[in-house]
Amino acid sequence: MFDSVAPILPVRDLDAALDRYRDLGFTAHAYEGPQRYGFVERDGVALHLTESPGHDPATTDTAVYLYVGDADAVYAEWAGATGHLHQPRDTPWGLREFSYVDPDGTLHRVGSWLAPPSQP
Question: Is the keyword Transmembrane helix assigned to this protein (predicted)?
């Protein structure tokens, strides 16, 4: 049985990334050891951050999908975020979603179901 998952996202500057996630409503803290590593969490969703000074935002294909209760509300909350925020839209696959690309090039797709998903 799986309990949870925490994607590990590369960032160029850990301190700046932790501040950015705090601005997005996450709690954030750095690992206390010698490695430049961080943890962010919001409403039970966890992401890990690893500092990689050679990380190139122009060539990354790092992406994460965040399911939320209300994509429009999260979009409004993230309106001042640094990076590129794209307006919510309804998708053919039944989600109201928007995307946010942060300064490290990570694509965050954020969506809420338009109707409860059907069970197999």
Answer: no
